[in-house]
Design goal:
This protein is α/β, with parallel strands linked by helices and about 700 residues long. Helices cover about 50% and strands about 15% of the residues. A hairpin with a 4-residue loop joins strand 13 and strand 14. Helix 19 packs across helix 22 and helix 28 packs across helix 29.
Length: about 700
C-alpha cells in the first residue's frame, strides 16, 4: 500500500472511532498511534494529559501526554500535530522545533514552579507539573515526541539532543510513514540498528557456536561499558517486552551485581551469568584474533536485564568508583533469528532463558494455553443479536498483535464487509484489555491504574497460578464476564464525558474506580447477591437502572480522585496508590433499591459457574480428539519410534501412543485417551522432540 492510501485508511479508522466513542479525531489519532508504539515496545505506557496555555515570558506551553520509565529514569512528553487534511502535508524543521519548544517550555515552567502558581489545581497539567518538580526532578533524560499524520521533510535527518538542566534531551518525530513502517513490519516494531563503532569499539569478539535452519548462535564477550552505553542510549527498548515488564514490577538494580561492579570488577565475568540476547541480523568482520560483530539489527535482551540495567546505572551514578567500567566484560549468548521466525522463536528463547529465574510462565503469557482458549471461545461464542439486527456477533479476542487487521488482509471487499459485520471493531479487545477488565472486576483499580503492561503482569501472575490449579475455571462464564465489564467500561466512559460535573481529565481512572467500587459495594453490603452479568450479556448494553447508578457512583469517584486533600498531587499517580482505593472503600454509599432488585442470588451464579466448568471439560475433550486425529497416524508413529530410541516413554505412555496409531485400523481412542495422548506428545516436546 502506498503512503497516501495508508494515511487515508488511518484517517478513516480514526473518524470511525471518534464517531463511535463521541470523541475528537485528534484524540483518537493520538490514542491509536501511542497504542501502536506501546505495542511496538517503544515505551512502556502512555498517560493522556492535555495542557495548552501561556507560560513565563508568554511562552506557549503544550503537551498531550506523558510516560515515566522507572527502568531508565526517563520522562517522555508528547505533542500531537494532527492536520486531518485531505492531502498529506509536510512537517518542516521549523514545525518540529516549534512543537518541541512548547514541550520544553512546559518542563521548564514546571521545574521553576510557574505552572503550579498559575494553573488550576484540578487541571491534569498541574498534577504533572508537581511531579516534574518533585518525583521526576532527577530524571536522566527527557524524551520529547511529536506525533503527526503529516510526513517528515526529507531535509530533516535528525534533531540532536541537548541538555535541560542536568538531564539530557532526545527528540523523536513519529510521522505517518513511521506508523506505516511499524504496521507493515514483520516484527511489529521499528528495528534498532546498532553500529558498534558509534560506541567506541571496532566490534564485539564472537565465536559461532551453532547453526540451524531457524537461527545462528554466537558466543560473545562484550565490554561492560559498551553494553551500558547502548542501554543508556536506546533505553529499555533493548529489553524484550516481557523482561522489561518483569523488571519494572520487581525492581531493576541487583545489590550483588552492583557490589561486584564496584568492588571486584575483574571477577565480573566469572561471577555473572551474562546476558542472552536475540537479533534479526548482524554484520561481522574478521578481526586480528577473532571474528568481530560490527553491526546488530533488532537487538533484544531476553535474559540479563538486571545485569544490563545495573551496569548502566553504575556508569551514571558510580562512574568514578566503577572506573568507567573499564575492567568489566560480560558474556553474551546471541541468537540471530530471521524476522519471519522471530514471532514464535523469540518468546520461547526468552521463556527458556529465564526458566531458572523468578520470571514465571505467566510472565511469558502470549502463547499460553490460556490465550489460546480465550481465542477459541471468542471465535465460537455468538453474542445475542440486538438493535434490530437479524444476526449475532463475536467479541473478537486478539491473542496476537495485529491479528484482527491481518485476518482481513487477504479478504475480498465482500468478505471483509461480512467479517466486520460479524466481528465489529468496537467488539475487538486485546490481552491487556482482558487483564484490565478482569482486574477491575477483581476490585483492583489501583493495579489497573498502573498502566496496561504492569497491570497485565499482575493479572498474568494470578491467571497462571489459577490455570495450574484448575484450567476449567476459564470458560464461557469467565469470557462473558470480561466482555460485560468491557460493555460497562464503555458505558461509564460515555456517562462521564457527558456529565455536567466532569471538567476533563482522568476519565480512564474514573471509569476504573467506578466499576470496582460498584463490585465492592455489592460484595460488602449484599453478600448473598451478585452482579447480574447475564442481563448485561443478554442485552449487550447497560440497563437504565444500572446507568443511573453508575452516574451517581462516577460523580463521587471523580470528586474523590480530585479531592484537594488527596495524598498525592498528581491525580494520575494518586490513582495508582493503594491508599486511594482504601479511602474510597471507606466512603458510605447506598445503592439504589432498583439496582438492588436487579441483582441475582449468588446460588444462581454458582450454578452457572458449575455448569460452565462441566461444559468446558467436554469441549476440551472434543478438542483433544480433533487434535489427535489431525496430527495423523504417521506422525504418531514417528513420536513412538523417537521415544523408544531415546528411552523417553514409560509403558503407559507407549500404550496411549498405540491407541493413537490404531486409528489406521479404524479404532479411534476415547476422549479421555486423547487427553492422555496429547500429554505424551507434550512430554516428547519437553524432551526436545523435533516435530
Amino acid at each position: 500500500m502506498d503512503l497516501e492510501s495508508f494515511r487515508q485508511s488511518i484517517l478513516q479508522e480514526v473518524h470511525v472511532n471518534a464517531s463511535q466513542n463521541g470523541t475528537f479525531p485528534r484524540d483518537e489519532f493520538l490514542a491509536l498511534y501511542t497504542e501502536e508504539l506501546v505495542e511496538a515496545e517503544e515505551f512502556v505506557d502512555f498517560e493522556p494529559v492535555q495542557y495548552d496555555g501561556s507560560g513565563s515570558r508568554n511562552k506557549h506551553l503544550q503537551i498531550d501526554g506523558y510516560y515515566y520509565d522507572d527502568l531508565e529514569q526517563s520522562l517522555g512528553l508528547f505533542i500531537c500535530d494532527f492536520s486531518d487534511s485531505e492531502v498529506t502535508e509536510t512537517v518542516t524543521r521549523g514545525d518540529a522545533e516549534t512543537s518541541f519548544r512548547r514541550e520544553e517550555a512546559f518542563v521548564q515552567d514546571a521545574l521553576s514552579g510557574f505552572i503550579q502558581k498559575h494553573a488550576e489545581e484540578s487541571s491534569p497539567g498541574y498534577g504533572l507539573a508537581v511531579d516534574i518538580s518533585g518525583r521526576y526532578k532527577d530524571v536522566r533524560k527527557y524524551k520529547f515526541y511529536l506525533i503527526t499524520d503529516k510526513v517528515l521533510s526529507k531535509r530533516i535527518t535528525g534533531i540532536p539532543g541537548s541538555k535541560l538542566g542536568k538531564a539530557g534531551t532526545e527528540y523523536s518525530i513519529w510521522d505517518i510513514s513511521r506508523l506505516q513502517g511499524i504496521r507493515e513490519s514483520k516484527t511489529g516494531k521499528e528495528d534498532i540498528v546498532i553500529h558498534l563503532s558509534d560506541f567506541g569499539v571496532e566490534g564485539i569478539p564472537c565465536l559461532k557456536a551453532s547453526e540451524s535452519d531457524d537461527y545462528t548462535a554466537y558466543l560473545c564477550n562484550i565490554p561492560g561499558k559498551v553494553l551500558a552505553d547502548m542501554y543508556n542510549h536506546y533505553g529499555s527498548r533493548l529489553l524484550e517486552g516481557n523482561v522489561r515488564s518483569f523488571l519494572s514490577v520487581r525492581g531493576k538494580i541487583n545489590k550483588g551485581i552492583r557490589n561486584t561492579i564496584l568492588n571486584d570488577p575483574a571477577k565480573f565475568f566469572a561471577y555473572n551469568n551474562g546476558i542472552a540476547a536475540t537479533a534479526y541480523a548482524i554484520q561481522t568482520e574478521q578481526g586480528f584474533s577473532s571474528l568481530m560483530i560490527t553491526e546488530i539489527t533488532g537487538l533484544q535482551i531476553v535474559n540479563g536485564g538486571q545485569t544490563t540495567a545495573s551496569l548502566a546505572n553504575a556508569l551514571i551514578k558510580d562512574k568514578a568508583r566503577a572506573n568507567n567500567l573499564q575492567n568489566i566484560y560480560v558474556p553474551m549468548k546471541l541468537s540471530v533469528v530471521s524476522p519471519e521466525k522471530a514471532v514464535t522463536l523469540i518468546p520461547n528463547i526468552a521463556r527458556f532463558a529465564n526458566s531458572q529465574n523468578k520470571v514465571s510462565e505467566a510472565d511469558f503469557f502470549s502463547n499460553s494455553p490460556f490465550h489460546i482458549r480465550m481465542e477459541e471461545i471468542s471465535r465460537r461464542l455468538i453474542a445475542p443479536a440486538v438493535d434490530g439486527n437479524q444476526f449475532g456477533t463475536h467479541w473478537y479476542y486478539e491473542r496476537a498483535r495485529g491479528q484482527y487487521r491481518q485476518e482481513q488482509a487477504k479478504m475480498t471487499e465482500a468478505e471483509k464487509k461480512k467479517f466486520q459485520m460479524e466481528n465489529p471493531k468496537r467488539q475487538m479487545f486485546t490481552k491487556t484489555d482482558l487483564a484490565k477488565y478482569y482486574n477491575i472486576y477483581q476490585m483492583m483499580p489501583d493495579k489497573v491504574s498502573l498502566g496496561a503492561q504492569k497491570n497485565f503482569i499482575e493479572f498474568a501472575k494470578w491467571a497462571g497460578e489459577q490455570w495450574n490449579k484448575n484450567d476449567l475455571n476459564f470458560n464461557e462464564v469467565f469470557f462473558k464476564r470480561v466482555v460485560c465489564v468491557d460493555i460497562l467500561f464503555k458505558a461509564v466512559d460515555d456517562i462521564v464525558k457527558h456529565a455536567a460535573w466532569y471538567d476533563g481529565g482522568y476519565k480512564a481512572q474514573v471509569n476504573t474506580y467506578t466499576l470496582s467500587w460498584l463490585f465492592y459495594l455489592i460484595q460488602k453490603n449484599y453478600p448473598r447477591y451478585a452482579f447480574n452479568f447475564r442481563d448485561v450479556w443478554k442485552k449487550q448494553r447497560v440497563s437504565d437502572e444500572l446507568k443511573m447508578q453508575l452516574e451517581s457512583l462516577a460523580e463521587k469517584v471523580f470528586y474523590h480522585l480530585t479531592n484537594p486533600d488527596r495524598l498525592v498531587q498528581n491525580v494520575t499517580e494518586w490513582a495508582k496508590r493503594a491508599d486511594c482505593w482504601e479511602k474510597l472503600k471507606e466512603m458510605d454509599f447506598q445503592l439504589s433499591p432498583a439496582l438492588v432488585r436487579w441483582l441475582v442470588p449468588k446460588e444462581a451464579v454458582s450454578e452457572q459457574e458449575k455448569d460452565a466448568k462441566v461444559e468446558q471439560k467436554e469441549i476440551s475433550k472434543a478438542n483433544a480428539m480433533i487434535q489427535v486425529a489431525n496430527y495423523g497416524v504417521e506422525n504418531w508413529k514417528k513420536v513412538q519410534k523417537w521415544g523408544i530410541e531415546n528411552n523417553i516413554f514409560s509403558a503407559t505412555d507407549l500404550s496411549f501412543l498405540k491407541a493413537a496409531i490404531a486409528m489406521e485400523k479404524g479404532k479411534f481412542p476415547t476422549d479421555r485417551q486423547c487427553v492422555k495422548i496429547l500429554g505424551v506428545l507434550q512430554k516428547a516436546r519437553d524432551e526436545s522432540y523435533p516435530d
